[in-house]
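Below is a filled-in request sheet from our internal design queue. Each sheet records the structural input a requester submitted and the sequence that came back. We keep these sheets so that new team members can see what a complete request looks like end to end.

REQUESTER: design group, bay 2
PRIORITY: normal
MODE: inverse folding
CHAIN LENGTH: 618
BACKBONE (tokenized):
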């Protein structure tokens, strides 16, 4: 059953959830073209609110204010013995069975609501009642939910029973030549078997700590029958999944075709990150059926246009590699990938957004991600940029193509500024080290990713090692595997026992935007007033960007723990901007003071207890 109206802005319980702060907790990982860890910020919890760093201050001087968890009065065992729960009820209740208006769905109780109502409830070993969060070693740990007791309603939706939720995870096959072409550039050696093992192990973690109302996920890993751009195979996969497995939901999908998602949605099956990003109209026309973790391409266009309009337009190209350009007002060109039927329209939308800032594109060139023709395309595209006198190339494409474009630019003795736009994985250190470093020394712009933390001390990798006592088999891909899983479990807690497509939709729209941090993006869905009205309701997650620049001299580990030289630096410690917040004035690119390549210690005030013992795997 789909939600009855995409325009509904929330019931009483939705408004109550908003009052008690963010629950959804996920990291940005742009999963549009390939499966490879995108690295970056913390990916496992509820970000803390950020204070803007002092102007010119160092990273060490930047601060993230502490966020105290809700407090409850509990006994030594986590519960007040004078208060009991009622096993036959749909949720915790006082001993006298008097009705309690929690403002939450039946069967759902958070520790913050319990504190406000003065209820003493045993939240169990998985909860740190002093912090009000899960007892896991992570600053961004989400709020505690009370253990559920009672009747969960059984088969509340297709793929749902009294004790299980059928989920299908679509994964690319190892023999996919398109995917192999991309991942081989950074020597990613994770296999489909590695990914599957890690998925199941992550599910064990979430089901040990997150409330699932008596059900466990029955996870089916489905290996795609074709390449990630094969339309026919994508449709066939979706049909087989729908008819043979009959899931409640699908996670993942072929990332270079819309066909898989379209076929699932035509059959009423919702999915998370099951294809390339879509336009706003696609999601509105399919309410409750499609969600992405990153922002949409049309949303990103708005932020990039704001950045260029406020920070770059009308000023000389002082960061170009050719000194003769330093005295010239910037002339903008754009290189963009043609990945779907929507690509041309999205490019036009970007140019229109730039025009609103009084900026024009002098030369616009598209390309197709085809290993057989990419080098030839690069030669033509770069020649046209040079001939048009472009000083500043705005790149919006896949993470492989910049290698060819930068090599060709050097071959043609053309040294422009390279403006990155948050397009998938171009803003990762792992891929950027594969580009011509003389050219990439002039690269800067905006990133969807958050400031990186050494994954040994923060993020899903460290949580996995803590919980399982060993590294994940998919040590390269875990950062991409986790977000869909975490999105589902975080939202499942809000839905409660009556799990339906409509209730999942209402719950994800009800959650407050996650608070902001240097090491995590702010994420929201629904009607939040963050984006222009044409982007509401919002089915895309991440709402902000950071400013970055490429430092070709700094050594360190990339996102998949490979040592090397050259890293992205995050301006002002990773300060992030939502629409309308990007400051006026020259970019802070290539200013060493206050920038950070990777946090080797957790940022100030993002510390967390590390004394917890993991619960047994469920």
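RETURNED SEQUENCE:
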């Amino acid at each position: 059953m789909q939600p009855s109206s995409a325009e509904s802005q929330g019931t009483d319980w939705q408004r109550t959830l908003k009052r008690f702060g963010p629950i959804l907790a996920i990291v940005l990982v742009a999963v549009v073209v390939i499966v490879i860890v995108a690295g970056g910020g913390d990916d496992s919890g509820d970000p803390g609110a950020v204070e803007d760093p002092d102007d010119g201050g160092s990273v060490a001087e930047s601060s993230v204010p502490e966020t105290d968890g809700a407090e409850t009065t509990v006994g030594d065992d986590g519960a007040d013995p004078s208060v009991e729960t009622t096993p036959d009820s749909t949720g915790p209740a006082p001993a006298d069975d008097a009705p309690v208006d929690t403002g939450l769905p039946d069967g759902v109780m958070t520790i913050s609501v319990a504190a406000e109502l003065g209820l003493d409830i045993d939240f169990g070993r998985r909860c740190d009642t002093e912090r009000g969060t899960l007892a896991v070693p992570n600053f961004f740990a989400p709020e505690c939910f009370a253990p559920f007791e009672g009747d969960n309603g059984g088969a509340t939706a297709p793929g749902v029973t009294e004790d299980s939720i059928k989920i299908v995870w679509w994964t690319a096959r190892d023999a996919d030549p398109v995917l192999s072409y991309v991942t081989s550039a950074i020597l990613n050696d994770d296999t489909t078997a590695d990914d599957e093992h890690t998925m199941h192990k992550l599910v064990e973690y979430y089901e040990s700590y997150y409330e699932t109302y008596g059900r466990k996920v029955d996870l089916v890993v489905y290996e795609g029958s074709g390449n990630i751009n094969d339309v026919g195979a994508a449709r066939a996969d979706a049909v087989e999944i729908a008819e043979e497995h009959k899931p409640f939901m699908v996670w993942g999908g072929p990332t270079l075709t819309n066909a898989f998602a379209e076929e699932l949605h035509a059959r009423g099956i919702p999915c998370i990150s099951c294809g390339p990003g879509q336009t706003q109209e696609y999601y509105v026309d399919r309410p409750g059926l499609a969600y992405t973790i990153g922002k949409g391409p049309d949303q990103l266009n708005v932020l990039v246009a704001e950045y260029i309009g406020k920070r770059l337009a009308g000023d000389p190209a002082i960061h170009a590699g050719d000194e003769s350009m330093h005295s010239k007002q910037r002339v903008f060109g754009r290189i963009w990938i043609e990945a779907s039927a929507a690509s041309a329209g999205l490019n036009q939308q970007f140019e229109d957004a730039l025009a609103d800032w009084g900026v024009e594109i002098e030369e616009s060139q598209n390309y197709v991600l085809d290993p057989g023709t990419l080098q030839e395309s690069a030669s033509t595209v770069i020649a046209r940029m040079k001939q048009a006198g472009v000083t500043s190339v705005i790149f919006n494409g896949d993470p492989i193509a910049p290698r060819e474009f930068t090599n060709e630019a050097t071959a043609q003795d053309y040294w422009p500024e390279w403006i990155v736009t948050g397009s998938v994985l171009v803003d990762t250190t792992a891929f950027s080290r594969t580009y011509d470093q003389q050219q990439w020394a002039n690269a800067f712009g905006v990133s969807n990713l958050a400031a990186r933390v050494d994954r040994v001390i923060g993020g899903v990798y460290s949580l996995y090692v803590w919980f399982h006592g060993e590294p994940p088999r998919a040590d390269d891909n875990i950062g991409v595997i986790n977000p869909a899983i975490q999105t589902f479990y975080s939202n499942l807690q809000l839905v409660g026992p009556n799990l339906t497509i409509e209730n999942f939709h209402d719950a994800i729209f009800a959650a407050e935007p996650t608070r902001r941090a240097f090491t995590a993006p702010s994420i929201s869905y629904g009607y939040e007033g963050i984006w222009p009205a044409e982007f509401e309701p919002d089915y895309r997650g991440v709402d902000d960007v950071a400013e970055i620049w490429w430092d070709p001299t700094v050594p360190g580990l990339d996102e998949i723990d490979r040592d090397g030289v050259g890293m992205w630096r995050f301006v002002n410690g990773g300060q992030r901007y939502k629409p309308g917040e990007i400051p006026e004035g020259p970019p802070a690119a290539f200013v060493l003071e206050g920038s950070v390549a990777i946090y080797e210690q957790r940022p100030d005030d993002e510390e967390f207890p590390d004394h917890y013992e993991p619960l047994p795997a469920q």
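SHEET NOTES:
- The longest strand covers residues 545-557.
- The longest helix spans residues 192-209.
FILED BY: M.R.
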